[in-house]
Amino acid sequence: MQVLGFRAATVALALIAAFAPNGTKADEISLIERSLPGEGQRPQAIVVGPDGNLWVTEVIKHQIFRVTPNGEMSSFLVPGDHVGVIQGITSGPDGNLWFTSREENAIRRISTKGEFNGTFAIPSQATTPTKFNTGSWPRGITVGPDGQIWFAEMAANKIGRVTLTGEFSEFAIPTENAEAYGVVTGPDQNLWFTESGAGKIGRLDIKTGKITEFPLGNPKSRPRDITVGPDSHLWFSMNGSDHIGRISMAGEIKEFPLPAETRPIGIATGADGNVWFTAFKSHKIGRITPAGEVSFFDLKTENAQPFGMTKGPSGVVWFTSQANQVGHVHITAKRQ
């Protein structure tokens, strides 16, 4: 374990003031960017842990990072001879963090003290193995409506569940090569997921195992991360078609266009009642209101490639950048 104090790569970038449509001054937005200890690292997923800290996966040097809300950072090297790409992470109801390990074809567990205390091998393999990957490629991961751990199997074309004691169940997705990516528990207590290879949103009834699929307007839209919005609908990024999507619990879909080459990935709802997302290709952080009004805020770091996003403590939106950084959105309420 390595522990470092707060080090801001770019603190409070030039303050960005947004203005309401009627010309009155709205909340002021600033983006705080912080470098991770070390160099050449690519953080991806980020989540709030049971301890109130931010936990981050890193795909190059196979680490898990812990970041306190005030910026103190700790790194934990994932042990094992076959550790490769570490991607999704979620906060478990057992007080641990659970994360996906692609090359090990496993779901792994780490305590808030940084102790690796469980490796659970996934039963399935890739439907079409490649020289890069032969396993199920576990990607997004979340706590399901039943309090167990659920995850997307991109290469096995399934949605998986592992209990807190390590027992697996798997559910085949009807569409071939769906490439399930993001997963989330919906307000209706079903499990919802994105099909990045098929351009669909899926819903899994965990009581019956039935999967219902809802096609998007563009089969190549590549939906990625998905979150519960402020309106009790689900919101998701559409990386291939430069849209943000919204789906109701009844399956009604609305798509909101973004500028070309935005390539959104991470998405989360903030305490301000808006949905925030990472604009991977344009190196910005985006915001969309429930009504569909979009704003963008520049990251100072060149080629930042913002990736993952989550709602942090007190509803503050946190994000990762592939340029070896984590950051958060700082909102200063407008003065009356």
From TrEMBL:
<keyword id="KW-0456">Lyase</keyword>
<protein>
    <submittedName>
        <fullName>Virginiamycin B lyase</fullName>
    </submittedName>
</protein>
<feature type="signal peptide">
    <location>
        <begin position="1"/>
        <end position="26"/>
    </location>
</feature>
<dbReference type="InterPro" id="IPR015943">
    <property type="entry name" value="WD40/YVTN_repeat-like_dom_sf"/>
</dbReference>
<dbReference type="GO" id="GO:0016829">
    <property type="term" value="F:lyase activity"/>
</dbReference>
<dbReference type="Pfam" id="PF24684">
    <property type="entry name" value="Vgb_lyase"/>
</dbReference>
<dbReference type="InterPro" id="IPR051344">
    <property type="entry name" value="Vgb"/>
</dbReference>
<keyword id="KW-0732">Signal</keyword>
